[in-house]
Amino acid sequence: MAYSGTVTDKTNLGNSILKWGTYNCASVSTGELDPGSDRVLFVFLQPKASSVIATGSSIDETMPYSIPPSGASKVTIDTSASETGYWVAICKP
Amino acid sequence: MAFENTIKHVDRIGKWKIKVGTYTNGGSDTGGELDTGLGNLLGLFLMKTGNGTTTDLAVVNETFPDVSGPYATIITKAGDDGIWLAIEGQKTTATTTVDEVQIFDVTRSSNKYLACGQIVDGGNGAVAAVLTSVLEKIDWMILQPIDSSVAASSPVINETFPVDAGQSGGITIACTASKTYLFLACGEKGGA
């Protein structure tokens, strides 16, 4: 299996967009989160599980982050193995 | 290099003012006084950046709402860097009741409502968060530990969003026993 993710919805802020979605690091511990915007100001990962996780996730980018025009890579996230959850991001329109 | 923080973005969500920034530690630094540039802090959410996960989650060592802004003490694993989201609102006091959601304030974006508050676990590491007084359908919720030392585990939410805020049992959260967590939730308005 590999990483997968979704963009669920968004709402407009004053000068930015608040977006959210899901991430699924199925059998892996890293992935390329695609918030659907090129300029990402903030990302928060909220794990979904039935009990606490003894690991804190990380955003492996220098923030704010501009996704390269090639789109070859997105926002790299590091998580515990097979972690799933929700992401919330503040992006530029 | 000592602890430093920057402000990268300023915006508004309805009546709230928000700021986004970064924090960096020197190799042996374990956090410091984060200057949010905001006054009455409703919440401060921290996310580690850099390669690899951490076993010591960054925490905020303040009592919220924090009317003494703009500084908020954060505690991190030595050398960990991250990003932060701070929220300024109008609420200035909060009661503390265990195993209940305490809502500091609610605001409206273009088509959603956001609620910020705290959850105090009563000792069993499980909270059924009920937000029916301010939100109806909940799209997401995020949790930030408040503590005087780094957190050994991540709080989790055991729900498939979106959920009906009025569902039986509320929003199921697993956390460290007797700890306090800031929350930020987004959804559609309902309740009183």
Please give a structural write-up.
The complex is a heterodimer of chains A (93) and B (192). Chain A has strands spanning 3-12, 17-25, 30-33, 39-48, 58-59, 65-66, 75-78, 84-91. Chain A has 93 residues and is an all-beta fold. Chain A has a single domain (3-91), classed as Immunoglobulin-like (Sandwich). Chain A has a 5-stranded antiparallel beta sheet with strand order 1-2-8-4-6, with no helix packed on it. Chain A is globular and about 35 Å long. Chain B has 192 residues and is mainly beta. Chain B has 2 domains: 4-88, Immunoglobulin-like (Sandwich); 101-189, Immunoglobulin-like, CATH 2.60.40. In chain B, 0% of the residues lie in helices and 51% in strands. Chain B has strands spanning 4-13, 16-24, 31-35, 41-49, 59-60, 71-75, 81-88, 101-108, 113-120, 126-129, 135-146, 156-157, 163-164, 171-174, 180-189. Classes of the chains: A mainly beta (93), B mainly beta (192). At the A-B interface, strand 1, strand 4, strand 5 and strand 8 of A face strand 1, strand 2, strand 4, strand 11 and strand 12 of B.
